Amino acid sequence: MTHTPHPTALSPQPDPATRLLPSRTDYDVIVLPSGVVRPGHDTVSGEQAHALAEQAQRIEMIHHLDIPTQATRYFDHLATDMAHRTGFLYGMVNLFLEEQTFIGLHNPPADSGYLTVDRTMNRDHGWCPEVVDRKKALPLHNVHAYHRFSSNYVVDAVGIQSYFGAPLIHDGIAVGTVCVIDPDPRPLDDALRLRDIVLNIRDTAMQAITTRDTRQ
């Protein structure tokens, strides 16, 4: 498959090696009714309070499972395996911390002419937030085939046209995702095969997480 290099670059992101897992108190939340104002704070809507509570649950579960919050060779290997098996340029194992944090990452070769993605991204960008919210796999063989998913920061910044992602879930809480992205769309009749590869890698990642067998 021939790819057309995309020249646009993302702005530099902080090195995740300098990031530590937020303490539980950073995400302690009192869920307030819609429209209630806390002294010294802006109004918190019911929807915002719910989102904050869910994020607090994710952080608590990441603590509980003792998931590494920095890059590891094991998760980098999983991301690379997933990218190679699907034929995608990029692969990620992604935790939803203060930012989306790629504890596993596969990039195209540095001399390929394609953008090198950093280890962190805004928690609202891309399609992984949708996967975490719905707690189901999201196979997008062509993001422009779906109006809801065609306008996205990642489309504009990296030129991505296909995405396959699946949630990392334990006890009903989605702590992150595994995903692959690519600047070329994929045939619709290949979507199930690609989805199943991503789901298989997701299951491998969760097995390693729950057994603490991440082989750092």
SS field, number of helical segments? 6
Major sheet characteristics:
6 strands, antiparallel
CATH class of the largest domain: Alpha Beta
CATH homologous superfamily title of the largest domain: GAF domain
Count all strands and give the number: 8
Structural class computed from helices and strand pairing: alpha+beta
| Helix and strand pattern | EEHHEEEHEHHEEH
**What's the CATH architecture of the largest domain?**
2-Layer Sandwich
Radius of gyration based on Cα positions: 18 Å
Strands ordered across the widest β-sheet: 5-4-3-8-7-6
Beta-strand fraction estimate: 15-25%
Amount of helix: 25-40%
Detail the poorly predicted runs: 6-38
CATH topology of the largest domain: Beta-Lactamase
Estimate nothing, just give the exact number of structural domains: 2
**In one word, what is the shape?**
globular
Protein name: GAF domain-containing protein
Domain GAF: 75-191
Description:
- The protein has 216 residues and is of the alpha+beta class.
- The chain has two domains: 24-65, no CATH class; 73-210, Beta-Lactamase (2-Layer Sandwich), CATH 3.30.450.
- Helix content is 33%, strand content 19%.
- The chain has helices spanning 46-65, 73-86, 128-134, 147-150, 153-158, 191-210; strands at residues 36-37, 43-44, 90-96, 100-106, 120-121, 138-140, 162-170, 173-182.
- The chain has a six-stranded antiparallel sheet with strand order 5-4-3-8-7-6, sandwiched between helices. A two-stranded antiparallel sheet has the order 1-2.
- Helix 2 runs antiparallel to helix 6 (191-210).
- The radius of gyration is 18 Å and the shape is globular.
- It starts with 35 loop residues before the first strand and ends in a 6-residue tail after the last helix.
